[in-house]
Design goal:
By secondary structure, this protein is α/β, with parallel strands linked by helices. It has 2 domains: 195 residues, Glycogen Phosphorylase B (Rossmann fold, 3-Layer(aba) Sandwich); 167 residues, Rossmann fold (3-Layer(aba) Sandwich), CATH 3.40.50. It has a 7-stranded parallel sheet, sandwiched between helices. Strands 10-9-8-11-12-13 form a 6-stranded parallel sheet, sandwiched between helices. Strand 4, helix 3 and strand 5 form a beta-alpha-beta unit. The longest helix is centred in the C-terminal third of the chain and has 21 residues. The chain is elongated and about 70 Å long. Ligand GMT binds next to helix 1.
Length: 379
Amino acid sequence: MNIGIVCYPTFGGSGVLATELGKALADKGHAVHFITYQQPVRLTGFSANVFFHEVRVPTYPLFDFPPYETALASTMVDVVKNNRIDLLHVHYAIPHASAAYMAQQILKTEGISTPFITTLHGTDITLVGKDKTYAPVVTFSINQSDAITAVSDNLRLETLMHFAIEKDISVIHNFVDIHRFTKRPIDAFKKVIAPNNEKIILHASNFRKVKRIADVIYTFNKIRSEIPSKLLLVGDGPERPMAEELCRELGICEDARFVGKQQDMEEIYAIADLFLLPSEYESFGLSALEAMAAGAPVIATQTGGLPEIVSDGKDGYLSEVGDVENMSRNAKRLLSNSIVLEQFKTAARKKAEMFDMNSIVPKYEALYEQVIAKSSAAL
Ligand code: GMT
């Protein structure tokens, strides 16, 4: 198949998932055309089946807001026409689904039928999409999609609860390439972070409010008061200055290291003893799954799709949002008992195997075939 993938090219989970999906499909022989405003961060290396089309948004003094959606729809039309694209798969509804609908309508006038699938990732529904400013267009374009998928059961229900959706939403959980995350820790790297063999607690995110970074710091502060440990914070975003300030206030800068955005996440996950994700909401929590694949148990919140990945008391722990007392207690329980910690690490890895790409990617392929067949039959 020839597939066009539209996503955000940044470090966010939806872009990461879309890129990993595209790479996996290319490895299986499909031609995959990424249509984004930048090369996706995880799109590294060369593959004969992967193509990248940059969306250029020419500016003009009149534009306070350059019309990205228009540029995107026009680029989609161009890519579809010139590469015999069978199907467009857009990740994150805003503004990708409405741009895909626009492209589809334009192509139709030229006798080209191109179905599109919208994959909902989370904040496109739960935060941004619900906003009255966007909701009518989001609802309309989701409904116009030839198929809709959500990355968790929870996100499917959230969508049905908040939007008047007239179609079925299939749940296709996010996935991980389990083999990529089976890395032996690099001793020299581990030594830099934890020179005295302290436990390593990891958090990785885009440092937005929804991630509750302050809870990461407070939880770590309670852990380190009893267990020699280091906190590794990966990523960047609006909450980082607050987080750094909080570390200074608590006097824990020596033990909390901010390393910014990183490419080689496999090597970072490999040295982690524990992954902390105290978010207000996660439709899925792809970073938690990647950490588990690397054998790190997860201390997270009982919210959104996280209970679909983390089994409380087995491969991690789930606490109420904001309950740093409970999260730190659970972390200390794990980190202070090497036998239990090992059991949790093994269980985390085993759980991640259930979300391996080899079992999830074929679900997308099956959906593509079904949608393409339906669209061809309608001609
Ligand atoms: O919040 C993020 O981490 C970024 C955001 C995105 O759209 O890029 O992530 C959402 O999609 C990810 C991939 O499906 C999910 O794993 C995240 O849980 C989800 N974020 C939220 O729901 C807050």
